[in-house]
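Handout, page 2. Input:
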Amino acid sequence: MSVDAVEVAVVGGGVMGLAAAWELARRGLRPVVFERFARGHREGASHGATRNFNNAYDEQHYLDLLVRAKEGWDALGLVDGEPLLRLHGLVTHGDVDLESIERRLTERGIHAEILSSRDAASRWAGMRFTDAVLFSRDAGVARASATIGELERRIVDAGGDVRWETPVIRIDETDSGVDLVLADGRVRADTVVVTVGAWTTKILPGLGLPRLAVTEETPAHFRPVDGSVWPSFNHYVDPARYPATVYGMPTPGEGVKVGFHRVGDPVDPDARPHRITHADALADYVREWMPGVDPASAVPISCTYTSTDDSAFVLDRRGRIVVGAGFSGHGFKFAPGVGAVLADLALDSTALAAAPFQLP
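Output:
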């Protein structure tokens, strides 16, 4: 059996693994990424054109990570003449403490202002508001698929490698390094970063991970019926009326993406049914709250969430294994910051992520 040796290995070629590899490459290493699926696959949580760049947080550890992520997004620069973040703004409304979020964002120098429902409805005629709205112009969407391509390009340009369709069967830690068992050989590395999403528990069964629930989520794109201007949005709805918080964003060429957050059925990622759930409730929500789209025009999208019980990320190191997991459906926007934290952990065995992200 052949044995290959690399400086540092990254297992999992979604946005978090690629962001970690890019950060390692920026620091002079030559990381090698191993991804079980082909380039452009749709089996995980990183595919599709857009992800919500939602900055409406009031917890300090997330805001710290958001600031670090924004530095990374800025460093990635323009792709095809356009930034990877489209900062068309975010509105947040419903049953949430808007004043606390506004205060925390303002303290960080991030734009935030509270608008009346009338002012918000005048600005975004495609949506309906009944109470005050928090608006931040420093938010919008991340261009997801373009981000994946740009991260790979930068890794390769820096001397690293991304090996698609190269599943890692097992990870064995030894006294001198880490062995990755592949179908046709082994790869040895001093340290491995593992970012495999829904497969985390399967590949790291003895690491002491918290419970990670894998669900299949099915938001949908809806067709706009007029020329309304669209922000990204969060709506903390009445739980007696709808199953969960609603999020969404405009996706050029596909419509307005709308979804319930973390309501999908539990699934085995290796036997995913690709079953649509909550479609009627989502159409009812759109009919009530979004007059600017056609509620009968839904085109469902399928993706997975891998969630911790409290939705907190896992960013930590055990021995020579660094893990990034449990992004709970709100991780993509943080990817450059997550990549930087994972690189810190990989290069310094004494480094620590923020306490809420650490393993027990």
